Amino acid sequence: MSSCCLSGALHEGKPTGRIDTIGGLQTYVAEPKNGSKTKSIVFISDIFGWEFPNTRLLADEYALAGFYTYIPDFHESDSLPISFLQNIEPPLKKQEQLSMTEKATNAATVPTTLGPWLVKHREAVSRPLIDGFINTVRMTPGTDKIGAVGFCWGGRYAILQAHGKTEGSVGGVDAAFAAHPSLVAVPGDFDPVSKPLSMAFGTKDSLVDEGTRGKILDVMGTKTEVEHEIRLYEDQVHGFALRSDWSSEKDKEAMDEATKQGIEWMSKYL
Q1: pLDDT at 4 over 50
Q2: What is the pLDDT of residue 252?
Q3: Helices (DSSP H) in 65-193: which residue ranges?
Q4: For residue 8, what pLDDT is reported?
Q5: CA distance 1 to 133
Q6: Closest CA to 134 of 154, 144, 148, 151
Q7: Is residue 163 classed as helix, strand or coil in its secondary structure?
Q8: CB atoms inside a 10 Å sphere around CB 110
């Protein structure tokens, strides 16, 4: 069983957005200074969900860049607790300090905790919620273009939203950014991509290894009509773009660069 997105650090700071109910889901909303919904972004969170402070702080950064940003509760009050954050694949510095017993204990946590959660929040359950929310945003007065920004578990769904909207369907965005997406299917998740897609991976990501990244590059390389990019971040583990260890200057710099990557991509295509 994959560890999906269980790694990283909790960041300090006070989110400045507000809570609303949109499309039947509790949602964190971060508004740009001018309040414009013209360029809207839907965050698809990792398994720690819409209340995870790091995610909300990052949404505030996108709002400062001019995007009306939503973080819906796609887990419907069933995100994994933040206390679970350090169990699997912590930052490299902490990995080196773990004993064999601690590593074994962490590894044993995965099938008993994450496995049932992934079944409960499988694609057949989660994708209709995501599609429906994006459709609600699409119909919101003042909205022009929509982007999807996803992390880990949510990264895959950002890629699926980059398939675009087909006639008679709901969901689909104008551009997407996926940071260390997990549980991706290659080539199945990438063949249908029709909208601009940017991705960020760490070279030490145990869930998307070099071979898998190579296959993704091969598939996307055939899509000459679709704008896309894949950036690699040296020595970064899974979850770095959302949960980097700020005590490490290199890790914090990587997170900042990934944030810049996503914002610049959305600024270009929304």
Answers
A1: no
A2: 87
A3: 92-95, 100-109, 115-120, 123-138, 153-161
A4: 45
A5: 29
A6: 148
A7: coil
A8: 17
Q: Which amino acid is at 159?
A: I
Q: Please name every residue paired with 197 in a beta bridge, in sequence order, or none if there are none.
A: 176, 228
Strand, coil or helix: 231:
strand
CB neighbours of residue 2 within 10 Å: 16
Give me the numbers of helices (H) and strands (E) for the chain, helices first please.
9, 8
Task: Say which residue the tokens 């994006």 belong to.
Answer: 134
Task: Determine the Cα–Cα distance for residues 199 and 141; give it in Å rounded to an integer.
Answer: 30
pTM score, two decimals? Answer: 0.89
Contact assessment for residue 233 and residue 202, using Cβ atoms and an 8 Å cutoff: yes
DSSP 82: G
Q: Can you say how many angstroms the Cα of residue 126 is from the centroid of all Cα atoms in its chain?
A: 14
CB 9 within 8 A of CB 91: yes
- Phi/psi for 31 (5° steps) reads -100, 145
* 72-106 core/surface letters (b: 16 or more CB in 10 A; e: else): bbbbbeebbeeebbbbbbbbbeeeeeeeeeeeeeb
Q: What is the largest CA-CA distance in the chain?
A: 55
Q: How many CA atoms, within 13 angstroms, populate the side-chain half-sphere of residue 264?
A: 10
Q: What is the pLDDT of residue 100?
A: 64
Residues in the chain: 270
